[in-house]
Design a protein that fits this description.
Elements lengths: L1 H36 L3 H12 L8
Organism: Funneliformis mosseae (Endomycorrhizal fungus)
Protein name: 1893_t:CDS:1
Length: about 60
């Protein structure tokens, strides 16, 4: 019995972690999308600085 409940506890913890990871990934995607659409002079300047320092934009 204790073995089964321990296993269930472990599984529930794993599921929690997976859900947390998915939520975190979704947040990251949201932030990236916001940055993509928020492409004003400031972010253009940032992209310019990044390119000047050797980073290349994937989608010009």
């Amino acid at each position: 019995n204790s073995c089964i409940s321990f296993a269930l506890f472990k599984v529930s913890k794993l599921v929690e972690k997976r859900i947390y990871k998915q939520k975190f990934a979704l947040q990251v995607v949201k932030v990236i999308n916001v940055l993509k659409y928020y492409d004003n002079e400031q972010t253009q300047q940032l992209h310019g600085d990044l390119e000047a320092s050797g980073f290349k934009r994937k989608n010009p």
